[in-house]
Design a protein that fits this description.
Blueprint: E1 4-12, H1 17-25, H2 27-31, E2 37-41, E3 44-49, E4 52-62, E5 66-71, E6 80-86, E7 93-102, H3 106-124
Length: 126
């Protein structure tokens, strides 16, 4: 199996960091754009897509700034992170995504993120 590589993509989001943050770390917020259903218990998030469940541990949390999850069944060095970046001069807000995928699946993975973030933006009404 080929090794997973880290990749990063950034999206401009017209939202306040505080509002955006609730969509990144709260089960209810994540259910509105990221997965069909999300439940949380003891820092373990269960994400459900088409009746398939995947568990991730919340490993980093910085209020109104960043969330990092580690898939429980993934390689030790792999995680996915959503970081809110706000430009100090313009106050523009961006969402930076860091994820891991094999070389062959990076383009597909980026497309999935593009679709999810488009859905997030429409959910936010941004």
């Amino acid at each position: 199996m080929s090794e997973k590589k880290k990749f990063n993509i950034e999206y401009e989001i017209k939202s306040s960091p505080r509002i955006l943050y609730t969509f990144l770390n709260e089960a209810n917020g994540l259910t509105q754009w990221f997965a069909d259903d999300v439940s949380v218990r003891d820092q373990i998030y269960t994400f459900t897509w088409d009746d398939e469940k995947q568990n991730a541990k919340l490993i980093t949390l910085k209020e109104n700034k960043l969330v990092r999850f580690k898939w429980l069944d993934d390689e030790p060095q792999c995680y996915f992170e959503m970081e809110i970046i706000q430009d100090e001069l313009t106050n523009d807000v961006a969402l930076s995504i860091t994820d891991f995928a094999t070389e062959e699946t990076i383009a597909e993975r980026k497309q999935i993120w593009d679709n999810q973030i488009d859905y997030l933006i429409s959910t936010l009404g941004a």
